[in-house]
Design a protein that fits this description.
- The chain is of the alpha+beta class.
- Helix content is about 45%, strand content about 15%.
- The protein has 2 domains: about 30 residues, no CATH class; about 55 residues, Arc Repressor Mutant, subunit A (Orthogonal Bundle).
- It contains 5 helices and 3 strands.
- Strands 1-3-2 form a 3-stranded antiparallel β-sheet.
- Helix 4 crosses helix 5.
Length: about 90
């Protein structure tokens, strides 16, 4: 069973998608991981994709909260973990 293999992350995903999408392949395509918060995810993603392009003296001006808000308004969703943090998914 997929919940046995992927744990709470799969259960969280399955509760937020249609029944046909609640299979392993779409889950694996959509699942981005577990973070302390949506902003923590946005910080990691931004740094991975864009930090090398931003001069060091300008990095303190990056609005990670705004970046997170944009991500989760269009293309991403999160589900609160029962323990702490959030599971993050993309709309695959």
């Amino acid at each position: 069973m997929l919940i046995d293999e992927h744990g709470e992350a799969f259960a969280a995903y399955a509760a937020h998608v249609d029944t046909e999408s609640a299979t392993e392949e779409p889950f694996l395509d959509a699942y981005r991981g577990h973070w302390d918060s949506e902003v923590a995810y946005a910080m990691d993603l931004f740094d991975e994709l864009y930090a090398h392009e931003v001069p060091e003296h300008l990095r303190s001006y990056i609005d990670y909260g705004g970046f997170a808000q944009d991500l989760f308004l269009d293309g991403h969703f999160s589900v609160r973990s029962s323990e702490f943090g959030v599971y993050v998914f993309t709309d695959a």
